[in-house]
Amino acid sequence: MVSQNELQFIEWQREAEERQHAKTMAITQSPSMFAYNQQKQNLIEKELDFSPQLEAIERLLRCDVLEVDENGNQFWTTNKNIDEVFLNRKGVSDVMRFITTIINPYKVLANYNLEEINQRVRQFKHEIRMMIYNNYALYGMDSEYKWNYYPMAVLSIGSVIEDTYRRALNGEAHRGITEQRVVTQSEALNNNPYSPQNMPSQQKRNLFNPFSWFNK
Prior knowledge:
elongated; 61% helix; 2 strands; two-stranded antiparallel sheet; mainly alpha
């Protein structure tokens, strides 16, 4: 038959576990912990966001003009000189549709060796060059300026593609992001004072000695 002391100990242990669980949930779900995890997640998402590169390529194809306002702020505007606009809307749309299949998170998180990267970059640069050349009339390339601009545009796009694929060299990007996630989870656990490794050591409790039920 269970003694009164044993019943009291069991009840006390149950209440203590409930209090510890409530404190643990409060820590892991606190605004500061949420903000910390969110910051880490934002850093990972930023590494996989290619919007700036894609916008830069689109401005390159449209030949947008960089201007400065009276306060010294820089901003991009549409080029009003049609003779200096490299590709028309049709050309920009076709090239960007092709570029977005090349520059995206899936390619960065792949695993390529150096030979594969060099081969792919050469192939992509060639295909972009031929697509523009074979459709030059349809894309509005009707001035000397545009034809002089053509090699540099292809070279610049190829450079962005190469930088993107080099991040996938031997799976470096995928491995780096995986390590960041592991570190984030480890830091969240270490910063939790109620995690097992951060809990103070407890003396062995004796059912028949009530004074041993509490930590000293």
